[in-house]
Predict the 3D structure of the following.
Amino acid sequence: MKRALVSVSDKAGIVEFCNSLVKNGYEIISTGGTYKKLVEAGIAAIEIDEVTKFPECFEGRVKTLNPYVHGGILHRRDKQSHLDQAKELGVESIDLVCVNLYPFKETIEKTDDFDEIIENIDIGGPAMVRSAAKNFDAVIIVTNVQDYAEVIDAIENEKNTKDFRRGYMIKAYEHTAAYDSMIANYMNERFNEGFGEKQFIVGEKVMNTRYGENPHQKGALYEFNNHFTDNFTTLKGEASFNNLNDLNGAVKIARGFGEQNAVCISKHGNPCGFAIKDTLLESYTEALKCDPVSAFGGVVAVNGTVNAELAEKMNEIFLEVVIAGRITLEAQEIFAKKKRIKLFEMGADTLILANDKKDFKHVDGGFVFQDADMVGVDEVKNAKLVSKIAAQSQDMKDMEIAYKIASLTKSNCVVYVKNSAMVAVGMGMTSRVDAAQCALKKAKDMGLDVRGAALASEAFFPFRDSIDAAAEAGIKNVIEPGGSIRDQEIIDAANEFGMSLYFSEVRHFLH
């Protein structure tokens, strides 16, 4: 008779799984709460101390750390010397190990009590998982509730091959590695401000992309905390590596204004249109005016529901990606006329942000890691008026929009907003005055009137030349972080031209 050792924190489906194991000739060994649940369900399980010949002790801290357990898992069935020694020592084979670990993640989410947190660090569980994975030649290791049906199918239908067990071995080491990484990261966050000697970035695979940035590169999407699994549904098409990067920037901007009717159009990760109006249709229409040339083949993020009317308007040009809170069935039917468009929704009234607390970027030979940047709720509201003239209420709204967009756009950048719609943007330039002038040239080419617009920069203006260019274009309100050694020159220029000028005193570089 084969034996299965079952010890799980997540007990969903465990009774049914063990019932199937028993029907397939397995004897069940179990521990603690799992043993109690199985017995209550009428399964003739063996309690772990009958195997270990030693009682659970130290309030359950030690129960499976025992040679009868690990010897039963680890001894090689293909070596006679191992079989002989197992017989000599009275060690019986354990052929399947089903373990999921103490709920450390759930514990740190619900409490700051360090004693409780420590008690929810699993020791015996990872040891059993690693032992079973090491001996995958003879042992099935199961760590995920979602895999129970597949394991039973393999046992019942002669699919329990070495290749099958190898796949579960890989899952097992991923499981324990992720668990230990989570503990290490938590301890460093608690005691080392999040920047310990080691930093672990662990994601769950969501899907392969068709390829990476280019066809010769492989690519895949990984997620934190089920963000995409819970909030990202493909309605049409296939998300590429570049699509995912582009929609990331568009979604962050469109969702950056709460539940307002925001629409952001993005191209190559940068905004080329944005507006907040009374309706999403108006927002899209105004956003498109900023740069309809760049919008061709772009990504549109809609902070709300795309209905049939909006879909008809969007279908007037070629768009590659639309992502929204929801896309109605009627809208989907309209988009179906376009073969190449890709549709995604988040299944909510608005777009959803994960609001990751950390950020990182690959550099040659490693990665740089930092606290994630966010614009504070009152950052614009509390900005310091440094000019003689103050902005009016609509001007303040325009400044807030421009400032938030600038914080999520590649440096060096400037953003011009008028009547809650972006009318010009310059991004990714090596000079801030070049960014300002490039944006104004583009607006002129598009026939857009920027007079009276608000201007935002994500970092300070090092010289007054950007203010001079803004004044010539008729800009009336400016917000920037300040902090330049020439700040007074900037202030004097604003006063000279009768502009309002605000310093947020917070820089938002995005490189």
